[in-house]
Task: structure prediction
Amino acid sequence: MNLKESLKKIKEESESFSLNTKEDLDKFRLKFLVKKSEMMELFNIIKDLAAEERKEAGRILNETRNLIEEKFKQHQEVVLSKREENANKEDLSLPPLHNQKGSRHAISIIRNRIIEIFSRIGFIIEEGPEIEDDWHNFSALNFAENHPARDMQDTFFINMEDQLALRTHTSSVQIRTMQTQKPPIRILAPGRVYRNEAVSARANCFFHQIEGLYIDEKVSFADLKQTLYFFVKEMYGDEIEVRFRPSYFPFTEPSAEMDISCTICKGKGCNVCKYSGWLEILGCGMVHPNVLKNCGIDPEKYSGFAFGMGLERQSMLLNGVNDLRTFFDNDTRFLKQF
Ligand code: DAH
Result:
C-alpha cells in the first residue's frame, strides 16, 4: 500500500470514529495521535522517499494529521463540558443516600433518664475522679481497716504505696461532696466504676453506677422510701411493685436493698427473676453517723440517705437485654436499637 492509500484509509477511519465519551477520546488518541500510532508511523516513511517526493508526502501527511487533531480537539471540548455539566446535576431518579446518623449509647440514655427523674425533685449532678484514694473509696465510708467488707469489691490498685485505685463505686463522690458542701445536699453522681471480676454475661471489669445522696435536718427513712418509690414509678411504670430487704453496707445504717416486681413475668416467676418474682435494683440506707463525722458534718444535727445502682442493670431490666457485655462490644446492630 502506498502512502496515499494508507492516508486515505486512516482519514476515512478517523472520520467515521464516533467521539462521544472520554473513553472514545482515549481510544482515538491512541489510534491516531500518539507517537506509535498508525498515523504517526507514516512520518517515518518520509525519510526513505526520494527528495522530490518528500515535499508532497510531507504536505499530505501534515494535512491529514491536522484534520485528525482538529476533530479530536473539537470533540474533547464538547465531551469535557458535558461531563462537568453532569457532575453538577443531581440525578433525581437515584435512590436517596442512606443517612447514617449516630445515636446515643444505651447507657447514656438510661443515665439521662434517671437524672431527669431525680432533677424534678431537686437533685443536682456531682462528679468525682475515677482514680481514687483509699480514704475516699473505703475509709471515709466506714470500711474498717481490715474489715472483710473491703473484699466485697475486688479492687484494681494502681499504686500500693499511695493506696491509689480505680474507684470501685460512686459512693466516693458522697464523701467528696460532703467535704466541700454544706447541707442541704441533694446530689446524683453518675460515673464509671471498676472491679476485678471475671467477665461474664452478668459482670464486667468496669460498669456504670449512679449514686444518690440527700443530707439535711430531720431526713428520715420515710423520705428515703418515698423518694425511691417516686423514682421507680417514673422509671418502670405505675403498676410496678416495690419491696425493701434489710442488707448491709458499711456506710449506711440501717441498710436495705430494693427489689421491684419482675418486669418480664410481672411477678409470676421466670428465669430472669430466678422464679422469685422479684428483681434487685439498688442498694440504699441512712448515711452512717461515722460517715457524716468523717466529712465534718454533725450527725446530731443532720441526717440523710444514700442509694446506689448499676446503670447496665437498669437498662437490662428495662429493655430485656440478657448479656451485659453487649453494652461494651460497640456492635452498632445492638446500639442502634435504643
Ligand atoms: N456502693 C454500693 C455498691 O457499689 C452501692 C450502694 C449501696 C450505694 C448502698 C449506696 C448505698 O449509696 O446507700 O455496691
In short: The chain is about 40% helix and 20% strand. The chain has a mean pLDDT of 91. The radius of gyration is 40 Å. Residues 68 and 113 are 74 Å apart (CA to CA).
